[in-house]
Predict the 3D structure of the following.
Amino acid sequence: MKRRLLTPLLLLVLGGTAVAQTPSLLDGLIPQGSASTSGQIIQMLAVLTVLSIAPGILIMATSFTRFAIAFSMLRSGLGLQTTPANLVMISLALFMTFYVMAPVFDRAWQNGVQPLVNNQITQDVAIREIMSPFREFMLRQVRDKDLRLFEDLADESFRTKANEAIDMRILVPAFMISELRRGFEIGFLIVLPFLVIDLIVATLTMSMGMMMLPPTVLSLPFKILFFVLIDGWNILVGSLIRSFS
């Protein structure tokens, strides 16, 4: 009877000792008394966060906003709801963005990313070198009025001081506001000739007594024909690219 009681107790003690001697997975990930691995985990989380918001960064610090608004206004002016498809419009805006931003991307790669990969510079220097071309690009396109707006609304801690670069927390929203304004300005010029065609067709249909026929149905082929005859895509894309020079 005593042996039957002692056997489970011995197994429990020996099993507990074996479990206690088994190394934990956390011991290899976060060693006690060392913060280096914890720092690497934090850096990995930061990289994953940046990758997850990469589309937002592309929109905020590049020329994508202006292209997207102009192409969207063009489709609205033509009266076409789904042609060209959203995939085509976004892809065209992305490729035009890569074309315009190619010098900026090249400088960021050569001065920041490549030296960092080759262990020639530190991470702090690499971040400054990567952001410098984007900062210069945004400063060329941003309006002074928008910069002053965000500087006046900014907290005292990151307001621009003498002989200091403009803080990105001020520059990025000011740049986006400027791009939205220019995008709508270009969109107005795009929509205006199509609006004239709609007015002419509406006047003709009213004078002919065609009350039940929507003027947009008749004006649609004329607007498409007009856009094709003037080689509209060439003019529009060329004008948008020249607007960044």
